C-alpha cells in the first residue's frame, strides 16, 4: 500500500499531544494503521512532548504526596495487568481499522442514497465529531456538497477522485467549508471509507435538498 | 535498598532510562524517588495547564509516577526515550481524567491507553535508537526561536489548540498557524533523516 495523502503536521502533533476529540482521533489513528511514515512523525512528536514535559516549570507537590504514593507502591497494581484482549467483534470484520474499535458496539449498513450506504460508529465517549463508514459502489458520483464544519476521510478499500487528487487505500483527505466536493468513485470494487465529520453537510441542488433529511445522522 | 544509580540528578534521558530500568529489575525505591523529584512537580504543572485543579493535578502526577513504577518492566529504552514514555503515560491519564470529569468513564473500552495502541504486535523496529531520536529532538527544539517553541509547547495542551493559542499569546490565528508550520518544518528537517 502506497500512501500519497497524509494528515497535516499540525493534526499529527495534536494526535501525539492527545488533544484531538475521540472522533478526530479515530480518523487519524485509522490513517496511522496503514502509514509507517506518519507513525514515525507521531513517535517523534511524542519525543517533543517528552522534552516539553521535562522542561516544564515545577509546581511543588502537596506535603505528604510522596509518602502517600510510596504506600501505594507495595499494593498489587491493577494498572499492571496486560491491556485487555481485543475480541474481533463489532468492527473486527472491517480491515484497516485500529484495534480499539473492535470492541465498539456493532451497527449495520443502511441506505442513504442510491449506491451509497452508511454504517455509524457509535462512540463510547460524547464527541463533537461523528464517525461512520461510508460504502459507495463503483462509478458513484457523490452528491456535490460542502461542509459547515470539517470532514476527515480515510480510504479503507477502493478509491475515489476529486479536484484534490486520487485517493486509494490508506490515503487521508481533509475537507472543510472551502472545499466543494465533487467526488467520483473510480475503483472497480466498492469504496469503503471511514469518515469523521463535524458540522453538517450542505448539499447543493434540488436532489441534494430532498436527500438532506435522510443524510442527517 | 541502596540505589545502584549514583551521582547527581540531571535532566538527562539516558539517566532517566537507567532509573526506570533499576525500578524494573530491582524495585529500586531510590531510583523511583529521584524520578519522582524530577518529574512529579513538572507533571503537576502540565496537568494544571491542562485545566486540572491543584489537588487534581497533584493526584494525576502521583498516578503517573505510580504507573511508571508499575509499568517499568514494559519500558523499552531501544524504542522510546524515557521522557517521551513518561509523557505518553501522563497524556493518557489526562485524557481519562478529563472524561471522568465529564462523568463519561471509559473503563469498559480500555481508555486512552488502548486508543493509542495502533497494531496488535510490537511496534516495528525502525532501526534507530530511541536515545538518538531523543537527543535529536532535544537539539531541534532547543534550536527553535522562542515564538515557535511557544506554539509547539501550547499545541500539547488545549483542545481546539490553534484558536486557544491565538487567545493565550494574543496574536492572530493566522500567525499561530504560520509559526506552527515554520516550527514543524524545522523539526521535520531535523527528524527526516529517520525515515
UniProtKB/TrEMBL annotation, chain A:
It comes from the Bacteria. Residues 10-39 form the Putative zinc-finger domain. Residues 106-196 form the ChrR-like cupin domain. NCBIfam families: anti_sig_ChrR. This is Cupin domain-containing protein. It comes from Bradyrhizobium jicamae.
UniProtKB/TrEMBL annotation, chain B:
Signal peptide: none annotated. Residues 35-104, 140-189 form the RNA polymerase sigma-70 region domain. PROSITE patterns: SIGMA70_ECF. Gene3D superfamilies: 1.10.1740.10, Winged helix-like DNA-binding domain superfamily/Winged helix DNA-binding domain. InterPro entries: RNA_pol_sigma-70-like (IPR039425), RNA_pol_sigma-70_dom (IPR014284), RNA_pol_sigma70_ECF_CS (IPR000838), RNA_pol_sigma70_r2 (IPR007627), RNA_pol_sigma70_r4 (IPR007630), RNA_pol_sigma_r2 (IPR013325), RNA_pol_sigma_r3/r4-like (IPR013324), WH-like_DNA-bd_sf (IPR036388). Pfam families: Sigma70_r2 (PF04542), Sigma70_r4 (PF04545). Keywords: DNA-binding, Sigma factor, Transcription, Transcription regulation. SUPFAM superfamilies: Sigma2 domain of RNA polymerase sigma factors (SSF88946), Sigma3 and sigma4 domains of RNA polymerase sigma factors (SSF88659). The keyword Transport does not apply. Residues 102-125 are annotated as: Disordered. Belongs to the sigma-70 factor family. ECF subfamily. This is RNA polymerase sigma factor. It comes from Bradyrhizobium jicamae.
